[in-house]
Each structure stands twice: as structure tokens, then as C-alpha cells.
Amino acid sequence: MEPRAPYPWLSAPTDGGSVARIRVLVVDDHRIFAESLAAALAAEPDVEVSAAGSGPAALRALER
Questions:
Q1: Interval 9-61: pLDDT, tens
Q2: Domain spans of the chain?
Q3: How far are the Cα atoms of 1, 2, 3, 11, 19 from residue 47, in angstroms, in the given order?
Q4: CA of 3: how far to CAs of 6, 36, 47, 57, in Å?
């Protein structure tokens, strides 16, 4: 039995298709922390990062 990848949805597809981008919404009222986390996540090639500084702003971002 082959070992499974810990996160199979992050693995390259075997059918020749493309890997779906992962969308992440960082929500934090501490700007420096939010920017640092967003930058670290955005460094990954298949991750699309958005950020919001409050709950209401996050809800508006989710509606887009």
C-alpha cells in the first residue's frame, strides 16, 4: 500500500488537470500580524490570499 499524502487535495492531479487554487481569507485586527500571515501564505504558488481587518469587513469580502 502506497503512503498517502497528508493533504491529498494539495497534490498534483494524476489526470493531467491543474491543481485548484486555495483561497484563504486572513481576518485580524492587528495589521502587522495579518500582513505577515498573508505574506507567508501568498508565497505558496497555489494560494490566493485576501485580508480583512474586522468581522464585518470579512463578511463583505466573502460576498465577493
A1: 555 555 666 667 899 999 999 999 999 999 999 999 999 999 999 999 999 99
A2: 21-63
A3: 30, 27, 25, 13, 11
A4: 9, 33, 25, 41
CA distances from 37 to 13, 26, 40 (A): 27, 8, 5
Pull the grid cell for residue 59.
463578511
Residues in the chain: 64
Contacts with 39 (C-beta within 8 Å, 6 or more apart), sequence order: none
- The C-alpha cell at 38 is 498573508
From the list 1, 21, 2, the residue with the least C-alpha distance to 10 is: 21
